[in-house]
Design a protein that fits this description.
The chain is α+β, with helices and mostly antiparallel strands. The protein has two domains: 92 residues; 130 residues, Crispr-associated protein, domain 2 (Alpha-Beta Plaits). It contains seven helices and twelve strands. Strands 2-3-1-4 form a four-stranded antiparallel sheet, with no helix packed on it. β6 and β7 form a beta hairpin. The two termini are 28 Å apart.
Length: 238
């Protein structure tokens, strides 16, 4: 398996103009769906994901299994408005590790949307849903519920174990979602509110291939819209 890390520097003004023109700007300003649409416009169905937009100063990071030459070739074909909004003139791509030592310690950061799909109804905030199912909801703490969920995600297929983890940021955000078509054949947009959390900590790598798959796939839902990208650093460097 091959994995590549790419970086570009979206232009905030051009991004806002493009998102507004295409009606892809969330009511609270989240750029996730607009960036998803821009990446798809530039790179096609194999657009890089998961990705993380870190703001105007740090830019956008994403993982892709497409080789650098193909990514650059696709970027060269992007229309001027897409290229400017994404900052493709500064596109940089490098190979990312896919082999990891069992027990290797790494620092990590990840932005996630801890939600659950109940048997009926729309997606729910995991904390609220858990509280409704609990006999003692007043004893539950949001961070603890989310951390338990996060540990389970890392532990799947023995990918990794969290040795330290804390919630670094939390808010409720609205993320644009496209639904079925209306009478005019146009896809309708919804912007449901949901949990938006950033976690930082230390992890211990488990099975190498499982950890590589976790990096490539991302964590949780809404991975195509700016959530779930696992950012790594040498241990104790957070």
């Amino acid at each position: 398996m091959s994995l590549y890390l790419l970086h570009c520097s979206p232009d905030p003004e051009a991004l806002a103009i493009w998102a507004t023109r295409h009606r892809l700007l969330s009511p609270d300003g989240d750029d996730g769906y607009a960036l998803h649409a821009l990446l798809t416009a530039a790179f096609g169905e194999q657009s890089p994901k998961p990705f993380r937009y870190l703001g105007a100063r740090q830019g956008l990071l994403a993982y892709s299994d497409q080789p650098p030459a193909l990514l650059h070739d696709n970027a060269a074909l992007a229309t001027p408005d897409v290229a400017r909004a994404l900052g493709l003139n500064s596109l940089a791509v490098r190979a990312f590790p896919t082999t990891w030592a069992n027990g290797q310690m790494l620092s990590f950061e990840v932005r996630v949307r801890p939600i659950v799909r109940p048997p009926r109804g729309p997606e729910r905030d995991l904390f609220q849903y858990t509280a409704e199912q609990s006999e003692s909801p007043e004893k539950l703490k949001r961070e603890v519920v989310y951390v338990d969920w996060l540990r389970q995600k890392f532990a799947e297929q023995d990918a990794a174990e969290l040795s330290q983890v804390s919630m670094d940021a939390f808010r409720l955000s609205r993320v644009i979602r496209r639904t079925g078509t209306n009478d005019q054949g146009q896809r309708q947009a919804l912007a449901p509110s949901g949990p938006d959390a950033v976690f930082k900590g230390q992890l211990r790598v488990g099975e190498s291939d499982a950890f590589a798959r976790l990096l490539k796939r991302g964590i949780g839902r809404h991975r195509a819209f700016g959530f779930g990208m696992l950012l790594l650093k040498p241990a104790h460097s957070c």
